[in-house]
Design goal:
Blueprint (H helix, E strand, L loop, with lengths): L2 H4 L1 E5 L5 H13 L12 H7 L7 E10 L5 E11 L4 E9 L8 H15 L4 E8 L10 H8 L3 E2 L5 E7 L17 E6 L5 H13 L10 H20 L3 E9 L4 E10 L6 E9 L8 H16 L5 E7 L3 H10 L2 E12 L7
Parallel strand pairs: 4-5, 11-12
Antiparallel strand pairs: 1-2, 2-3, 3-4, 5-13, 6-13, 7-12, 7-13, 8-9, 9-10, 10-11
Helix pairs in contact: 6-7
Length: 347
């Protein structure tokens, strides 16, 4: 144990511990430059995340204090534990920029492994931001750290991260395309109307590949529960959302939808979320239509938005191409690394 780790003290991070939460938020601000161009952390969003986890997921939030730094928070860990999975996901492993490469990150990883084992998980996974070929430079230290603690890059496709700068490119310059015959557009805000809650959930969870089964009552109940739990998380974190859906007029069914969300603390930033069209209705450029119509909807309500980010698995070439046509520029890639619980590598 070196001097930087001898004075460390771990403690859970709880939403009602205002002093610790303030120090945690300061840590997030101090490390905000880790990924150039990323949206600044929103205090309301991050504080809300301590109370409202994603659907079917338990969170373990911890901070580490350093006696030599006035017992202040110098690092943070968030471990996500999806229900019914063997994996514990490291959603945050953060050390103050002034104290990196001194063993604190390894101590946090060790705590993550202990927590994962305590929950009966055998695998730790995490996401690392890396540069795209020919793209902007990104810090190589996170990947080097993952390798040093014994993790390996997963075989799963990486995520391609794209940004749309509305000050550089306006995809609405030519307006919103006409809606194809036989379809109609609908819009809604943060809370999905009851009539669309089940279709939205089934479209999202199956990526548009589910069959329309009117008799699957149990599946509908589960799907609706997922949608409402997600909305509970979103509202609890102070986020807003804007949705546009496309309805197949002959059947009255929701054939696809798209979502953009945003935090309260970053008026210029928004996140392009899920865009999905049911397999039976593909080939009509409904995805492009949905995104453009929803962007117009967002800007009517959020005129300050100027930067929109999105991400897709790198093998989803069709959606990446749609985004590129709209003016989204590639920024970096998000790779998944995994390690076995109990393996921490060597220095």
């Amino acid at each position: 144990m070196n001097d930087s780790t001898r004075g460390l003290r771990f403690s859970p991070l709880a939403a009602d511990d205002e002093t610790t939460v303030r120090q945690w938020l300061t840590l997030l601000d101090d490390a905000a430059g880790d990924v150039p161009g990323a949206a600044p952390p929103c205090a309301a969003d991050m504080t809300g995340s301590l109370r409202f986890p994603p659907p079917a997921t338990k969170l373990e939030d911890w901070v580490v204090r350093h006696e030599g730094r006035g017992d202040r928070v110098v690092g943070a860990l968030r471990l996500a534990l999806p229900d019914g999975a063997d994996v514990a996901r490291v959603d945050q492993l953060l050390v103050h920029p002034e104290l990196r490469r001194r063993g604190i990150g390894r101590a946090l990883y060790g705590r993550a492994a202990e927590l994962a084992a305590g929950h009966g998980r055998s695998v730790l996974s995490g996401t690392v931001v890396e540069a795209l070929p020919g793209g902007p430079e990104r810090d190589t230290a996170p990947a080097a750290f993952a390798a040093a603690v014994g993790a390996r890059r997963a075989a799963a496709p990486a995520g391609v991260h794209q940004w749309l700068d509305l000050g550089v490119h306006d995809p609405l310059a030519s307006g919103v395309p006409d809606v194809p015959p036989g379809y109609g557009l609908v819009t809604w805000g943060t809370i999905t109307p009851d009539a669309y809650a089940v279709p939205v959930s089934m479209l999202e969870q199956s990526l548009g590949d589910e069959s329309f089964d009117e008799d699957a009552a149990a599946d509908r109940e589960v799907a609706t529960s997922y949608a409402r739990e997600f909305e509970t998380m979103r509202v609890g974190r102070g986020r807003k959302a804007y949705h546009t859906g496309v309805v197949h007029e002959a059947s009255g069914r929701l054939a696809g939808y798209t979502s953009v969300s945003k935090t309260t603390g970053n008026p210029a930033y928004a996140l392009q979320g899920m865009t999905v069209v049911h397999r039976a209705h593909r080939g009509h450029r409904l995805g492009t239509l949905l995104k453009l119509a929803n962007l117009a909807y967002v800007l009517r309500h959020e005129p300050a938005v100027r930067l929109i980010e999105t991400a897709n698995a790198e093998d989803n070439t069709a959606m990446i191409a749609v985004n590129a046509d709209l003016g989204f520029a590639p920024a970096d890639r998000w790779t998944t690394w995994t390690g076995l619980v109990g393996t921490t590598g060597s220095d």
